[in-house]
Amino acid sequence: MQSTRISLLANARAGSEHAWTRLVELYQPLVYGWLRRHDVAHHDAEELTQEVLTVVVQELPRFSHSGNRGAFRHWLRQVTVNRAKGFWRSGKLRPAATGDSNFREIIDQLADDGSEISKLWDREYDNHVLRQLLQQVESECEPATFQAFRRLVFEEHTAADVARDLGQTIGATYSARARVLRRLRELAAGIIDLPSFS
Asked: What is the pTM of this model?
């Protein structure tokens, strides 16, 4: 597996074109999907998503991770809120696009850290990013390595069963899990707080 000591965010801030591309690939479906689930029309959701990502690209060099849980997730949510409010004020979002006029109320709730909508955003963010990172790690490692990790962590098989099924030692099974977890932690640095995989 490829090793990296610098997070995706740090690489993007440093100007890495690959990191910028990866960042956009990671967050474009999240923002667009969230808008569509809240009844924003396809064209408006695409345009607003582009506005959000443009701000992320412009402002990321000035973003400083506080070290607090969810700092980047919170920042991205606030960028989305600010761009959505601007989109709404500019009249670009047509009332027919939402089916009613509650989009502004939804955005106000998204701005409130304690609201159910902002908590839903946080859960969707975490789930989306984790799925994307798992796909990346799976593409980087040997199939048996990822299969051992998946079966131990997500399917909760015993190490003895996984080792027997994959034709490896129990130590190799635990080692595979550790390698995948290490790579996930490297990729997740600064962008997601991983669940505690046992």
From this structure: 0.77
